C-alpha cells in the first residue's frame, strides 16, 4: 500500500496535470472563439464557470475538435483518480485488486491497473 506521503505526492501530481489541462483547454477555447467569431449560437459562455459548466464545455469541445478528445479522456482519468483518493481506493488495481506499485503510480498517477493487468493484451476479463 502507498504511504500517506506517497498518496499526497500522487494527489499533487494529479492536481498539476489537471491545471495543465485547464490551461491548455482555455487556450483552445480562446482559439475557438476567435475562429468561431460571428457564430451567434449564444451558447458559448466566457469567464468563470463552475465545474459542471466547464465539464459540459469540455465535452462539447471534444466533439467539435479532435485534438481535445484525448485531453478530455485524460481529464476524466485524472478526476476519477482524485475521486479514488477520496474514496481511499487509489492505488488498487481495478482488475485484480492488487496494490499498484509506487513506481508505476509515480510515472502514471492516474493508473487504474497494475503493471501485470495493464500489460496483458485483452486480459481485462
Ligand atoms: Zn491487476
Describe it for me?
- This protein has 125 residues and is mostly helical.
- Helices cover 62% and strands 0% of the residues.
- It contains 5 helices and no strands.
- Helix 1 runs antiparallel to helix 3.
- The radius of gyration is 17 Å and the shape is elongated.
- The structure holds zinc ion (ZN).
- The site of zinc ion (ZN) has 8 residues, from helix 5.
- Zinc ion binds next to helix 5.
Q: What is the helix/strand order? A: HHHHH
What proportion of the residues form beta strands (DSSP E)? under 5%
Termini separation comes to 24 Å
**What ligand molecules are bound, each kind once?**
zinc ion
Number of helices: 5
Helix content: 55-70%
In total, the number of strands is: 0
Structural class: mainly alpha
- The Cα radius of gyration reads 17 Å
Which shape, going by the Cα principal axes?
elongated
Low-pLDDT sequence parts: none
How many strands, what sense, and barrel or not for the largest sheet? none
Mean pLDDT: 81
Q: What topology does this entry show?
A:
Blueprint: H1 4-35, H2 51-64, H3 67-87, H4 102-107, H5 115-119
Helix pairs in contact: 1-3, 2-3
The structure holds zinc ion.
Question: What attributes does this structure have?
Answer:
single chain; binds zinc ion; 125 residues; mainly alpha; elongated; 5 helices
Amino acid at each position: 500500500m502507498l504511504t500517506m506521503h506517497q498518496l499526497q505526492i500522487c494527489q499533487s501530481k494529479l492536481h498539476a496535470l489537471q491545471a495543465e489541462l485547464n490551461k491548455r483547454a482555455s487556450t483552445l477555447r480562446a482559439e475557438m472563439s476567435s475562429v468561431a467569431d460571428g457564430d451567434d449560437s449564444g451558447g458559448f459562455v466566457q469567464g468563470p464557470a463552475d465545474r459542471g459548466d466547464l465539464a459540459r464545455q469540455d465535452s462539447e469541445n471534444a466533439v467539435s475538435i479532435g485534438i481535445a478528445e484525448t485531453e478530455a479522456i485524460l481529464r476524466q482519468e485524472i478526476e476519477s483518480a482524485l475521486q479514488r483518493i477520496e474514496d481511499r481506493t487509489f492505488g488498487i488495481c481495478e482488475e485484480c485488486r492488487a496494490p499498484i506499485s509506487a513506481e508505476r503510480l509515480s510515472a502514471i498517477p492516474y493508473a487504474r491497473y497494475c503493471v501485470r493487468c495493464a500489460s496483458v493484451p485483452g486480459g481485462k476479463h
